[in-house]
Amino acid sequence: MESFVRYRNILLLVVFVSSVNSLPYDVHWLGGPTIIDREIKPNKETIDIYCYSGCNKNLFVLWQTVKFNLKIKNDEFNQYIGENPEDVYKDYTENSYGWAVVNPFQKKSYKSISIDLFTPTCMAIDTKHRHSIELHIQRVDMWRVLLMALGLVLIFSSKALSGNPVFFYVCGVLVGVSASFLLLVYYFSKLLPRKTLTYGILIGGWTVGVYLIRQAWENVQSILMSYQVYMFWYTLIVTFVSFVVCYRIGPPKNQRSKNLVMWTLQVIGAIMIFFSSQYREASTMVCVLALCIKYFPQTWLYRVQAYWRRKFPPQRRLLTSEEYYEEGARETKRALDNLRQYCSSPDCKQWSVIMKISDAKRFASFVEGNSHLSDDEVMDYESYAFSLERDKPVANSTRAYDISDDDSSTDDEDYL
């Protein structure tokens, strides 16, 4: 009996292993930055599927970007993407029946695609050429950081930008150029046969419309690349015309118009912050926090500051004697310059001032830039300061010795 149970377990294990190994695809789970080189084997019957398992939501992935990069010499490959290996293999088998040869609505393949950070994503490549698959994890995507920073700038600077003439002209020129391209598309759309296009969309469904829009966009891109000189001159002329129109209209002066511009900028900034990260909860929190700070009442802020100063008053530092003399000299000089400037201005009634003072010549000399003290007054002040310095104890002051050699020799002779 024991031998029978043992043989049965071995048989079940063999059947399980054979069933696992009989899968028509090989799954490669990638959990970090990885590069896999692939050589095409003619006898290989399975397809390689590369899967990214996703990551947990935390603030360290706020500006993170994950990409699947395909390195191949040509564009002869098909790409299949899904949330799990089964979906990818299903798309691969449906495409292998020959429908892809005549299928104009097949999704376009790209050599670099961004994938969701938190959702498992699988990808398979069908090609006959040598290639390599890279899972590129960019911890800090500078474009996402720049997008969030620009959104914050728009929110906090919206009030200043709403009345800025330079910003008005720049936005007006951009809107004018964009509107001109839309008008070109509108007039060119009138040249298309409407009935044939309508019947095609009705018969083929929305996929025909998507296909036609994609083909039209690719044609527009090829036209822009082929006629760069004409497009440059067209953009330059439209820019000049838009600037002339904006200059004629002028920046908005009505406060309600400025409010509309301010609110529009804040909405654009909030949208930029929201789409700057795949962690939507965190980006939404940043957006809400920025708007709350923007519209936080100033009176409440002043109350919080006053309460903080009452509870934690700043420590006052007393000035030293040298700082006291330096500040006195600096403030005196600034006050004299202000007084001299006022006396030279038309606001000052010079004749009335001259009638009230005893020495008009000295006042005129002061206004012209000379010193407000005479030589005798300077000598009296220096003698008085010197006497005060000599009366101080030697241990507490060294300024009594900061005199010239001539003065010291004179004092020695007088003392003797």
Task: Walk me through the topology.
Layout lengths: L1 H20 L3 E6 L3 E5 L8 E6 L12 E7 L6 E5 L2 H11 L3 H4 L9 E4 L5 E6 L4 E8 L3 H15 L1 H5 L2 H26 L3 H11 L1 H21 L1 H22 L5 H20 L5 H15 L3 H14 L9 H24 L5 H7 L3 H8 L7 H17 L13 H11 L1
Parallel strand pairs: 1-3
Antiparallel strand pairs: 2-8, 3-7, 4-6, 4-8, 5-7
Helix pairs in contact: 4-10, 6-9, 7-8, 10-11
Order of helical and strand elements: HEEEEEHHEEEHHHHHHHHHHHHHH
Number of strands: 8
Helix content, binned percent: 55-70%
Net shape: elongated
Whole-Å distance between the termini? 132 Å
Main β-sheet: number of strands, strand sense, barrel status? 4 strands, mixed
Structural class: alpha+beta
Query: If you average the pLDDT, what whole number results?
Result: 78
Q: Widest sheet: strand order? A: 1-3-7-5
Share in β-strands: 5-15%
Q: What's the alpha carbon Rg, rounded to whole Å?
A: 41 Å
Spans where pLDDT lies below 50 across 5 or more residues: 13-21, 98-105, 395-416
Q: What's the tally of helices?
A: 17
* Assembly type: single chain
